[in-house]
Structure formats: C-alpha cells, structure tokens
C-alpha cells in the first residue's frame, strides 16, 4: 500500500494534480482557513476605510479638490520633489484606494490607462496620495489661521470691554472723619448776651404801635410829591417847545433878510447896466 500511494503521488505531481492532494490533507485545510482570514480582513478594512475628505472642517471644498486630481495625468506620473519626506505604506492605504476607485470614476479610468503601461501600481498610488496630503494640509492651515484670527478678535473685544469697565468704575473715596467743633465758654456767653433777632422782619415789625394821624400825613405828602413831579415835567416840556419855536423863527428871519439882500443886489446890477448903455 505504501508503494501504491507513492506511485499515485508521483503520477499526480507529474500531471500537476498536487494541489488536489494537498487540499485533502491538514495542510490544505490550514491554507484554506488562512486565505479566508485574509479575505475577511481585506473586506473589513475596505468597509472601515473612508475617503480622505471624511470628518474634515470643509468637506465639500476638499472633496472637489481631490476629485479634480484625477483629471490630470501629471498628478500620477510625477514623483514627489526631491528632499520631501513623504511616508507611504501601500498595504495600509490600499483600502482607501479601493474606496476612492468606487467614489471617483475618472480615477478608475486613469488607473486602467496608466497601470502598468506607464507606471507601477505602488508608484501610481504614492503620487496620488502625496497630492491628497498636500490638499489636506492646506485646508488644515487655512482652518487654523481662521481660528487664530477669531481668537485674536475675541481677545481684543475682551480688552475693550475691560477698559470700558475700568473707565466706568470709579475708585471709592476713603472715609473722612468729621471732628466735632468744641465751642469755648466765651463764644457761648457772646451768643447768649447778643440781642435776639427775629427770623422774619414781619415778626419784629409791630403794627399796634402805628398812629393813624401819621399815616394820613404821609399819604398826603406822597400825593403832593407826585403832583409836583407832574407839573415840573409839564413845565420842562413847554420850555423845550418854546426853544424849538424860537430856533425856527430865527431861521425864518435869516432867510427873509437874505432874500431882501438878493433883491437889492439885482436892482443895483440893472442900474449899472442902464448907465453903461
């Protein structure tokens, strides 16, 4: 039986049927389990993988920029610049690459055209993910700059509010002790000996002491004084009026005398002319 099994194995090896024999053994079962495990891990990774723009601050703009990379061949053919440190692990990024092939139809076409005619698979994805990392870094920098600017505005606002509060709040004045003024005995005596003055003049003015005869005389005197003032005012007005009349009469007399002189002068001129004739 050993010889027969050896011959059958020899024939199967020669005919290329060794895989069928191994599958029937324990080694075959182990290989099957290993393949199954690898496939399950790959499917889990592909299911857990997300596109590069997931959970970013501005997903829409980053998505548009990453999808625009597939329109240019140079993004896949050009290597990163010399001196740039870009770590790329193909096995780690392979699930993300599968997700991107599903999301981006242009990327799938570009891979079909370039791999492996112009570039290898690993180089293709390295160049692609290098450009993707640049887009993500620029988006992070813009978001950080916006956050710093907003924080600066808040700080300046807080300083302005603090300054306004300092201006409005005034410092408390320290308490001042008021010392009572001690009056001397001499001042008290002077105050007590001084004659009492009533608070109002009407209180001090006693109307019972007035005499009615005196009041009548004072009233008559006031009436006479008013009459005298009125007569003096009338006399002054008449005197002024007389002065004005005298001035007008004098002016009239001067005018009449000058007219008479003019007539005499005309007569003399006529007589002189007649004599010459």
TrEMBL record:
GO terms for biological process: cellular response to epidermal growth factor stimulus; cellular response to insulin stimulus; positive regulation of fat cell differentiation; regulation of short-term neuronal synaptic plasticity; TORC2 signaling. It comes from the Eukaryota. Residues 152-170 have a biased composition (Basic and acidic residues). Residues 212-275 form a coiled coil. InterPro entries: BSD_dom, BSD_dom_sf, BSD_domain-containing. Residues 84-136 form the BSD domain. Pfam families: BSD. Gene3D superfamilies: BSD domain. PROSITE patterns: BSD (PS50858). Keywords: Coiled coil, Phosphoprotein. The keyword Transmembrane helix does not apply. Plays a role in adipocyte differentiation by promoting mTORC2-mediated phosphorylation of AKT1 at 'Ser-473' after growth factor stimulation. Interacts (via phosphorylated form and BSD domain) with AKT1; this interaction is enhanced in a mTORC2-mediated manner in response to epidermal growth factor (EGF) stimulation and activates AKT1. This is Synapse-associated protein 1. It comes from Zosterops lateralis melanops.
């Amino acid at each position: 039986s050993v010889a027969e099994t050896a011959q059958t194995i020899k024939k199967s090896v020669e005919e290329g049927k060794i895989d069928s024999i191994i599958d029937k053994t324990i080694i075959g079962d182990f290989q099957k389990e290993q393949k199954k495990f690898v496939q399950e891990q790959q499917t889990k990774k592909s299911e857990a993988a997300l596109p590069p723009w997931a959970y970013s601050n501005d997903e829409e703009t980053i998505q548009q920029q990453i999808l625009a990379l597939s329109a240019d061949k140079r993004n896949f053919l050009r290597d990163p610049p010399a001196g740039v440190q870009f770590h790329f692990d193909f096995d780690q990024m392979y699930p993300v690459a599968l997700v991107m092939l599903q999301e981006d139809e242009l990327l799938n076409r570009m891979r079909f055209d370039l791999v492996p005619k112009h570039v290898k698979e690993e180089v293709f994805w390295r160049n692609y993910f290098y450009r993707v990392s640049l887009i993500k870094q620029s988006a992070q920098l813009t978001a950080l700059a916006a956050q710093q600017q907003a924080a600066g505005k808040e700080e300046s606002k807080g300083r302005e509010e603090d300054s306004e509060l300092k201006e409005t709040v005034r410092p408390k004045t320290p308490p001042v002790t008021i010392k009572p003024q001690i009056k001397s005995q001499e001042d008290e005596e002077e105050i007590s000996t001084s004659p009492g003055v009533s608070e109002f003049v009407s209180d001090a003015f006693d109307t019972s002491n007035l005499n009615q005869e005196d009041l009548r005389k004072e009233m008559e005197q006031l009436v006479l004084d008013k009459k005298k003032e009125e007569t003096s005012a009338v006399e002054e007005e008449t005197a002024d009026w007389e002065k004005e009349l005298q001035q007008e009469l004098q002016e009239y007399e001067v005018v009449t005398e000058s007219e008479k002189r003019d007539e005499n002068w005309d007569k003399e001129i006529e007589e002189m002319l007649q004599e010459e004739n």
